[in-house]
Structure formats: C-alpha cells, structure tokens
Amino acid sequence: MTKILIVGGVAGGASAAARARRLSESAQIIMFERGNFVSFANCGLPYHIGGDIKDRSKLLLQTPDSFLARFNVDVRVMNEVTGIDRQNKTVTVKNLLDGSEYNENYDFLLLSPGAAPVIPPIPGIDNPLTHSLRNIPDMDRIIDTIRMNKPEHATVIGGGFIGLEMMEAFHQLGIKTTLIEMANQVMTPVDREMAGFVHAEIREKGIDLRLGVALEAVEFMPNVSVASQDAGEPVAHQHLEGELKLSLNNGEQLTTDLLIMAVGVRPETTLAAEAGLKVGELGGIWTNAQMQTSDPSIFAVGDAVETQNFVTGQPSLVPLAGPANRQGRMAADNMLGRSETYQGTQGTAICKVFDLAVASTGTNEKQLQREGIGYEKVFVHAASHAGYYPGAEIVSFKMLFDPQSGKIFGAQAVGRDGIDKRIDVMAVAQRAGMTVEQLQHLELTYAPPYGSAKDVINQAAFVASNIIKGDATPIHFDEIDHLTDDQILLDVRNPGELENIGYLEGAVNIPVDQLRQRINELPKDKEIVVYCAVGLRGNVAYRQLVNNGFKARNLIGGYRTYQFANA
Amino acid sequence: MTKILIVGGVAGGASAAARARRLSESAQIIMFERGNFVSFANCGLPYHIGGDIKDRSKLLLQTPDSFLARFNVDVRVMNEVTGIDRQNKTVTVKNLLDGSEYNENYDFLLLSPGAAPVIPPIPGIDNPLTHSLRNIPDMDRIIDTIRMNKPEHATVIGGGFIGLEMMEAFHQLGIKTTLIEMANQVMTPVDREMAGFVHAEIREKGIDLRLGVALEAVEFMPNVSVASQDAGEPVAHQHLEGELKLSLNNGEQLTTDLLIMAVGVRPETTLAAEAGLKVGELGGIWTNAQMQTSDPSIFAVGDAVETQNFVTGQPSLVPLAGPANRQGRMAADNMLGRSETYQGTQGTAICKVFDLAVASTGTNEKQLQREGIGYEKVFVHAASHAGYYPGAEIVSFKMLFDPQSGKIFGAQAVGRDGIDKRIDVMAVAQRAGMTVEQLQHLELTYAPPYGSAKDVINQAAFVASNIIKGDATPIHFDEIDHLTDDQILLDVRNPGELENIGYLEGAVNIPVDQLRQRINELPKDKEIVVYCAVGLRGNVAYRQLVNNGFKARNLIGGYRTYQFANA
What we know:
Two copies of one chain form a homodimer.
Chain A: E1 3-7, H1 11-23, E2 28-33, H2 45-50, H3 64-71, E3 74-77, E4 79-85, E5 90-95, E6 101-105, E7 108-111, E8 115-117, E9 130-131, H4 136-149, E10 153-157, H5 161-172, E11 176-181, H6 192-204, E12 208-211, E13 215-225, E14 240-248, E15 253-256, E16 258-261, E17 265-267, H7 270-274, E18 298-300, E19 307-308, E20 315-316, H8 321-335, E21 349-353, E22 356-362, H9 365-371, E23 376-383, E24 394-401, E25 408-415, H10 419-431, H11 436-439, H12 456-469, E26 474-475, E27 487-491, H13 495-501, E28 508-509, H14 515-518, E29 527-531, H15 536-547, E30 551-555, H16 558-565
Parallel strand pairs in A: 1-2, 1-7, 2-3, 7-18, 9-16, 10-11, 10-16, 11-12, 26-30, 27-28, 27-29, 29-30
Antiparallel strand pairs in A: 4-5, 5-6, 8-17, 13-14, 14-15, 19-20, 21-22, 22-25, 23-24, 24-25
Helix pairs in contact in A: 1-8, 6-16
Keywords (chains A, B): FAD, Flavoprotein, Oxidoreductase, Redox-active center
Pfam families (chains A, B): Pyr_redox_2, Pyr_redox_dim, Rhodanese
Family (chains A, B): Belongs to the class-III pyridine nucleotide-disulfide oxidoreductase family.
C-alpha cells in the first residue's frame, strides 16, 4: 500500500489527489491544507468581489467531505505541515485549531504549497485598509471592508492579472479607482506597444492609471472604529473606517479609502528549503521533468516550482492554474509508477480588462532581447470575423519568430473578440513546433459569424513569410521616430483617414490607388517608408515601388501600431 | 512580360490576381467573370436575406474599378470564357452584353470557375417560386420574391450550410419553415450523434424538420401574376404569386410559398473538360500540389478542383472559401516562378444554426468507416469557460483518433459558445501532426471568462490517452441498446438527475459518492457498464470498480451523448 501525503489542497494538490485515487484504490492519500478551504476557485475571487459571480459558494469547488466521499482522500484543513524528515520519510503537522503537533510518515510526498503575495516593505503598509488577494479569507476581508466602509476611492498597486481584475471589480462597484504600476506598462507578459491598447481602454473607463510610479509610503488616518471580528481578522487588521494617504516616488500624494497590493507572488519554498530540497535560481522549488524534487520521494508542482521555459529552455516561474493542474496529475502518475514528463511552460495567459481581452503565449520581445536571441516581429490588425457580418472587432496581433528558421517564439493579441482563440491557435502551433511558413496553410473555421477566409493568423503568417523570403522589407513603429535624411515617409491612406485618425509628421500622402499614376512624384535615391492604417495597403504600395525600382520599406502593423505604442 | 488570364473573379481568382500583381508590376493580368460581380461575399448572402447584414453593398468587396485602381487588373465582367485552345494558348471569350466573341492569348491561364448548385431533375422543379442561392442575382431574386409575395411558409431542401443558413434567414423573417433532408441528419461533415444537438435546436425554434425524406415532385399552382422584370429574370422565372405543392417520397404532401434547393454544388468543369484537361474521379478538375492542371500552363483553384484529403490522401471536393483563397495565392506564386505547394484539405468548417455553432475538422466517423480505417473515438461535454463564471455553455466535443499511434483523425463540436475555438485548436494540432497524447500538454488561454484550467481539449486528450494506455475500457452510445445478459448497467448519478433528465432502462442506480460503501451490491461475474451525465463521474466509478477487481466499461460522453444521438 502506497502512502501519499500532499501539502496544499488547491489546484495542483487536488488534481494529484484525485488522479492518484483513480490510479489506485489501495493507496492511502492524505491532503494537508493550512487554510480552511480546499480546491477553491482561486481565479474567480475578483469576480465575486466585483459581483459577476453572485454566489460565493460557487467558488468552493470541493469540500473535505466531498473529497472523502468521491476519492477517499483524507483531507485535513487547518493542518499545516511544518517540517519534513527526509531520512525517516515523515512530516511534522501542526493542527492550527488546537495547536497540537503530530507526525505522519509517507512513501511519497507531494508539495503543492502555491505562492504568496509579495508585500514590499513599504512604511505603513501594514494597516487595516490594505489587502492582498490570494484566497477566500482575503476575499471575504475585502468584501467586508467594502460593505462596512463604503469606500469611494480604491487604489490598486500592480497592473498584473489580479491588479487589473481588482481594478475592474472596483469600477463595477462604482468605486473610483487609481491603478499604479511601477513599470511603464500593465500586463508585462505582452510588450509595451501591445499594452498600449489596454492603457487606452483603462483610461477610457475613467480609471486613474499611473505608470512608471511606485508607492513609497502609506499613512493610515483612522476615523471611526468599526470592529469586524466576524471576518476572523486579528485585532490589528479589524476593519476601521478611515483613509490612507499614499506617497508616490514621483512626489505625488494620493488619498484613498482602500488599498490592494497586487505586485506579484513569490513561491512558498520555506518548507522545501528547510528540508534541504534544491531551490532554483529564481527562487522556486527545483524539479526534474517528472516533477520530482532533488529527493526522489518528494514531488512538487504548481506555483511553488520552477519549470522549463518552452522556448528558451531556461528555468521560469509561471504561477498559472493550467500548468499546476496538469503537473499535479502527472506527479500522481509518477508517484504510482508511471513515467510522465512535463514538457515545459509556454506561459499562455489571458486577462479580461473591461471589454478587452489581452493574451499571450511563448516569449515576448523583452525576454528575447534579455536572452540575446535574434528575432523578427510582425503586427496585424484584422477583423475577428467577416467585416460585413455584425459584431466584427479588430484583433491586434503580434507574432515573434526566428527570421532564419521560421520558428515561432511567441504571440500576443488584444481586442474585444476572438483573442483567446487566436492565442490558443498560436499556443498549439508553437508547442507542435510549427514554423511561421506553416501557419500560412492553417485551415481554421470560417463562416461570417466566426472568422474570415484569411484569418488573422494566416495574414500574420503571410507577412512573416514575405519578410523571410525577402518579399517585404519591414520597418517597425519604434524606428519611425529615428528616420534619416535618406528616408521619406509615404502615407498611402485616403486623405480623410489622415484627418480623422492622425498621421506621421512630414509624410507625403499619395493614396495607394493613385500611386501608379503618381509614382514619379517620389524620389528614387531615397528609401521610401510606406505606411497605411494597418500595413495591408502599405504592402501593396511597397510591392509596387520595389517592382518599379524604388527602395522602400513598409511599416508593419501600420499607423495603428505606432499610434497605440505609446498610449 | 507574363500574361495571365483568370477565369472567375470571386475568392480564388481574385486572390490570385491581387497576389500576382504584388509579385510583378509588369505582368498583364486579365480577369474574366461571366456574372456581373467580382469578389463578392458569397458566404454573406443568406445573412443579407435574413436581415443580419442590412446593407447589400457590404457584400460587394471589390468592383472592376477598384481592382483596376489598386492592382492594375483588367476585370471584364459579363465576359464568359467559352473555349481554350491549349495548342495556341488562347481562349475564346464571349461578351455577354453584346454577344460578340474574341480571343485572348496567355502565358498562364488560371481556372477559378467555382461550383454550381445541383438541381436534381425533379418534375416541376423549374418554376418561378423555386430558387437556389449561389450569387448576388440569386440573392436578389429571393429577396424580390419575399418582398412581393410575402410568403407565409418556405421550404428548404437540403440541410447543409446554405440550407441551414436559409432556414434561419426565413425564421428571422417570421416565415414558417420546413427543412427537408434526404439523409438522416443535417450537416453531414459531423456524425449523426453530433447532428442530434442541431436537430434539437432546429425543432426547438419551431422549424418543421423532416429527415430521411426526399422531394419527388413539385406542382406550381399560380395565383395572380406579378411581373418582376426589374430583377432581370427570364419571363418563365418572373415572380408569380401562387403556391407549390410538394410531394415527398414518403407519400406526404406539403404546400409552400417558396422553395429553396440547397442539396449541394457541383464543380464547374465544362470548360476544363472540353479543353481536354484531366478531370478527377470525383468530378473536379485535377491538379497537382502546385495547383497546376494536366496542362502545365493552366492552373486551377477553388470549388472547381479536387484536392487531397489531409488525413486519407484521397481526392476530395471541398467547396470552402479558405482553401480557395489560399490556393489562388499559391497559384499566382507558381505562375510567377515560385514553388509553393498546397498541403491538403482538412475540410475545417463551421455553421451557425440559431444559437448553436456546429463545426468540424478532418475526417468523420462515416468517412473512416467507408475507407476501412481503424479508429477510436471519445466524447466530452464540458463548460466553454469556468462553470462558476456567468455565461458558460456546454461544449459537446467528439474526437476521432488512431488507437495505435494516437494520430488525430478528426474532431467535431457543437454548442453555444467556444465551438470555433476548439475546432481551430484541433485543426492546428492535426495539421501539425500532433497525437492525442500530446494534446494533454496543450497550454491554452485560461481565465474564468475564457476557458478552464483543464480545457475541453485537455479533457478529451486525457480520456483518449486513458483508452490508449488501457486505463479506460470504453463503451459507446451505439452499443448501449445491444447489451447482453452478461452486462449490467450502473448509473452513478444522483437520483434527482435520473428523474429530471432520464435514464437507461434497467440501470441500477448507485451514486458515485456511495459506491465505495455499496460496491458489494454489484456482481463480479458480469461486466458493469457504468454511466453518468457526461462520463466524468463514470470514469471515477469505473476506476474504482476495476481497481477492486470488477469487470467494467464506462460510457464515453455519458447519458448526454446517448440522449442526443437520436434527436
């Protein structure tokens, strides 16, 4: 009889427990959770705060009782594993309800402790109106604070997934919101110019978005005391009416009624490190591809571990639910004698930001630059489905690839419709090892309500292949502000578009459909930098120019990419 | 200077013309179209009739003038190419406006004539109230008939894409509709049991759906004559008030005000065949992978050609817009000295049927049986996104694969949300040559509004891999009605579900969460056929049974698959 102990009862741990039982009726399985809840819908918390998910109980996917009934798993909530004796293969467990301690032996131990919110050591940060959001009690505290204090203004620090989702939740509740992000963009999985679309959306909804600014100090200015022992908080954290004065590193000050710290998470490795298990250079538990730690009897999964980046092969920390679930399943397989290997993490991710979705897979440009990997990029802005059918929205799409081999490095997309689909397609293509040339041949679903005969992805593949074959000489948005005297800008849109949307200073305007007649207005001794709205007409003009002996380049992604790059 | 003639100015022809010009400024390009319109939105026609696309001009994507201005292509509408002299590399063209004829020589000729609606030789079918729908004049005639005759009842013959879309259009216009299909299902790209979901939706909307019935005769019973020469119809086809009496092959009769024939299309091969070009066994123009016909100076693309089925390698006729567009682009490349190869057709397709989408890629079960290819299948019914987030809908998903190699044969999906996405993912995975085991590792976008940590596709891959590894012994919906005395049915749902949804006659009911306690109620000498709602709890119970030494099988896709299989 194999005895398996599992530390942590959410995504990875719960998946492992269920899979282990399906594989073996005789295994003894005990799952320890220091909190009060197992298998809760972590990712749903902000949506319950914002009111999209009305019923709190929907977030509680399993209970200790349901786990016992279905999977015969002994679930021990409020039981914290405090130590591992690897020699004797036992753990020390502290019952948090009565403070007692006991030991439990194991054949295999699975660590799925997750990650904890990072709270930077900012003066005054420890106050009753500042919260982070990771679990059900965190959520309950935030809801209690909102219910009791009726805040008029909230501030969110951090523009990642949780930060953006909390910003939207507050906005839905009618609370004026400030979002502060230290970097020059939100959603760091995408590159700066793609985040520009998100910034525009956030500002349009009336959010006070401040980029490139950090919180330096917090001052709690209490008003009336409103005790909230119901929420199970320590006295220091009881809800108090009052406000916070925030000092930012640009000298600005800000008064707010509620502060959410969402600057990131850090792997929970204390238990693993104290047991002498190898911890990786990024601070996550090291595992091999079988999800086995440096001790072969101990496995680890989820937000606490480092996995291999699918593109670079480098270690990475990717605290996402999908990988955690699959790793848990795999660890159970391997503990019970199978041999399954985890095949790297692409970091495929998506976030809803008001009416937009922003998503990515693989590596972004910042990472490629950091790793010193040569790359090329294309931008396409195309309709989510046939433009003549109602409801089509622009998909703004970026693809990064190796200009030599055509290998896909990554993809990013932003828009109001069909974003998840395009990034899913790219995630599959990348995992399968397809090249950008092969993407030309993709045969995707098409009917007017769902797609286009030439999908966004096909189009991006055409552009990328044109570049690889030398049929297109690209110029990118970030080069436009550094043109030389040997280059001239040619805007091939219609005059009305220049007027309504804007244009690049100094551009000559010849609409593409007049170019053949007016081509002699252009100089042959300069490089002509062509652009249009999104790059399509620009390419038609570019081809005409080079086929007529001109030197030319086409602005990939057109004016739209340039325009939002700094939004 | 290369001179390229193109026959047909819609998807394939128009794509080829544009691409050819981008590649060569000097090529002479003439595009002949016997109709009045080039590059129109074929796929949008039913949606304009139904009113979703209000503005008719949105369907006209390009005009001869716009083609000339942008691409310097000489577009000749109402000019029909009537003959090819391959020896002298010339075509004969008839100007349909004045009846004159002329010749035009070519270096390369591209045939993109499309396909024409099949009108079976049914007595009385040639009458003024019977229409097919392929182009703008067809659409205009149908709209005119509706406007003038104000039909109260319409009948559609054929349950393919056009038939289903016209059914929906009539329904939107408040016209009672009968849909008649000779086969026992609509949407033949999917298998019968998946079409069941569509049948249920169609009937729920009040459509009179008749399956397995054919139209045998039509009798036109004129009422008042309402001339409609404006619509450019020959006198015989002028709109007349009156009704049609339809006789069906089951002896039933039906009176209707308007009849749409949508039983399929046939490649337009007359020109090619008369020129002695090779025509394939399915009746489409034969081409090699370069889209070259048996005459190296003549290329052919689109609905008129046979392509290789991606899975079986057999010739196939796939009249879809995506392949036509890509083939046109490729043919232009090859005419101008490149070497691009078309890489087979998966037949990826999708259709909106009221609130449902139904989609597929690759081969279906019927085709695999016909080809004698061994396969296994799985069914999964899972939420389109996290169940706890509002708006989640069930994705009903079928995957066909090789149980030896894990190769993906095809996939089908039906539901109200996320159908296009799942079939796109499968289309990419199949094209990339992934196995069903590899699909387990797919890392798809997940946030509660968009997906699940374990996506439908991951789940289907888990089930398929369990079968391949022998961790699951499947039984399928179509075997349930043929159980032997050595098998017993075990329903592991909760009693309320049996009551509300229905159950299989003769099943023993032990809810999965009670199975461990009550397992001794089951016999060890019989095979236990386990089922639940969708197969998930069934698998938990199945594993418990086999791990306890019982013989068992799990109904893949559960009661839901069985229930809709005959709908």
